[in-house]
């Protein structure tokens, strides 16, 4: 099942006509974003820059996903869109009885695109800390919930430790290791030559790969970040960001690019 990103159309409906936009993620999320860009007239360049490698403890992950499928958890928390890729790769099932917490709009969009449901997305800060701060209000103060916390190998256990401290039963499992993916030389050459109009940056990990593989980005190329946290991560890496999505969603990210294009017209 593939989700869609709804976009509004203004003017002739093709405000990004002539624009080539680099989409740094593949899979259902990347396909949905590419389709939305095409609806605005852009030519998407799908060039996945990050992927996941198996977690060191595969047995623990497989066991956790089996329990998830059997409905043994009240909640499952996902802290990145890559975690959704892991779920899809393993053919994991999330029962309707198990609620899903996504750390941000990128993760939520990936879940929807992959056919999973989403129950909580932080309204303020797209981070594990932001999700933790809104947890009690979102769950109406329930205690003793059984929670599966899936994370990357490098992620700090802010969420799982925090949930344990407020009285929940948490099984924290490493779902994957993040690795950079070398992109095609032609894409690198096109970006450096200024032949790519915009680059989408959807996470700190993506920002790192954009800077390492493509930096410095030409001044005329628009760099669009999906939210303030990603913008901050990019800044730490020395990556320039020109526009930031208002609502930390793929749709809002595309809108930010459209607004920039209209301003340049």
TrEMBL record:
Keywords from the named record: Lyase, Porphyrin biosynthesis
The EC number(s) this enzyme carries: 4.2.1.75
Alphabetical list of InterPro entries matching this protein: 4pyrrol_syn_uPrphyn_synt_sf, 4pyrrol_synth_uPrphyn_synth, UROS/Hem4
Family matches, as CDD domains: HemD
The protein's enzyme class: lyase
Catalyzed chemical reaction(s): hydroxymethylbilane = uroporphyrinogen III + H2O
Claim: Lyase is one of the keywords in the record: yes
Recorded metabolic or biological pathway in which this protein acts: Porphyrin-containing compound metabolism; protoporphyrin-IX biosynthesis; coproporphyrinogen-III from 5-aminolevulinate: step 3/4
Pfam families xrefs: HEM4
Occurrences of domain Tetrapyrrole biosynthesis uroporphyrinogen III synthase (ranges): 32-254
Record PANTHER family: UROPORPHYRINOGEN-III SYNTHASE, CHLOROPLASTIC (PTHR38042:SF1)
Function: Catalyzes cyclization of the linear tetrapyrrole, hydroxymethylbilane, to the macrocyclic uroporphyrinogen III.
Family: Belongs to the uroporphyrinogen-III synthase family.
Name the record gives this protein: Uroporphyrinogen-III synthase
